């Protein structure tokens, strides 16, 4: 969604369907892609998505916040920063392999509340964004503040210790 009036599903839809479904999965990941590398789920985008769907605390749609399942990713992305872009999704196993092979410095991006690192392979620079306990904790706190549940994509792609924060 690009703005409050340009959305596929809004507060009115939530109210209309609330009595007919058990919940709504709000996908708040895949913000960036190979042609536009960056964080998977910037916190401000998550907040914007929740605010757009549940516009005012205490409103009728806020009563239904428990029906929202905030989508968080247990996978990451390895983006090419040169040679025309590209890249794609990585699993926990891929993430560990990259850490062991390139020994990069993990950096925290305050703007997105996500960790990332940069590495080079055969002259091609890469940016890797992958969830960590801290980034997951921030998102879990946000869901809890709204009274929302969680929707995880995809459990088998994460690191075993991700369950420690749940």
UniProtKB/TrEMBL annotation:
Cellular compartments per GO CC: endomembrane system; extracellular region; lysosome
Gene3D superfamilies: 3.10.50.10, Glycosidases (3.20.20.80)
Subcellular compartments: Lysosome; Secreted
Single GO BP term: carbohydrate metabolic process
Secreted as UniProt keyword: yes
Domain annotation GH18: ranges: 1-166
Alphabetical keyword list: Lysosome, Secreted, Signal
Pfam family, one: Glyco_hydro_18
Molecular function in Gene Ontology: oligosaccharide binding
UniProt xrefs under PROSITE patterns: GH18_2 (PS51910)
Family label: Belongs to the glycosyl hydrolase 18 family.
Stated name of the protein: Chitinase domain-containing protein 1
Species of the source: Aegilops tauschii subsp. strangulata (Goatgrass)
Lineage, top ranks: Eukaryota, Viridiplantae, Streptophyta, Embryophyta, Tracheophyta
């Amino acid at each position: 969604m690009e703005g409050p009036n340009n959305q596929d599903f809004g507060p009115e839809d939530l109210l209309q369907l609330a009595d007919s479904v058990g919940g709504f999965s709000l996908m708040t990941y895949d913000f960036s892609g190979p042609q536009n590398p960056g964080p998977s789920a910037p916190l401000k985008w998550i907040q914007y998505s929740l605010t757009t769907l549940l516009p005012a605390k205490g409103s009728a749609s806020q009563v239904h916040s428990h029906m929202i399942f905030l989508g968080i990713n247990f996978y990451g992305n390895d983006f090419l920063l040169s040679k025309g872009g590209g890249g794609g999704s990585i699993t926990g196993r891929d993430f560990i392999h990259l850490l062991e092979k390139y020994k990069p410095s993990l950096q925290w991006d305050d703007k997105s509340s996500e960790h990332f690192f940069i590495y080079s392979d055969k002259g091609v620079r890469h940016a890797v964004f992958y969830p960590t306990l801290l980034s997951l904790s921030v998102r879990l706190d946000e869901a809890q503040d709204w009274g929302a549940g969680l929707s995880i994509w995809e459990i088998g792609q994460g690191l075993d210790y991700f369950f420690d924060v749940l």
